[in-house]
Amino acid sequence: MSDLLVLLRETLPEFLGSLAAAVVTTAAAAALRTARTARLRRREPAPTEPPTAQE
Length: 55
Hints:
single chain; rod-shaped; mainly alpha
């Protein structure tokens, strides 16, 4: 049992570092996706209304 605790104590910082890196990477990807979507929306031309028939 003590060997398991020693192993956990030694690997916990590495695991937490990897977990933090995954969280940061996921957050960065979401931010980039949001920015890209917003930029694409701004590039689309404004919809034009069809000309009205004048009599």
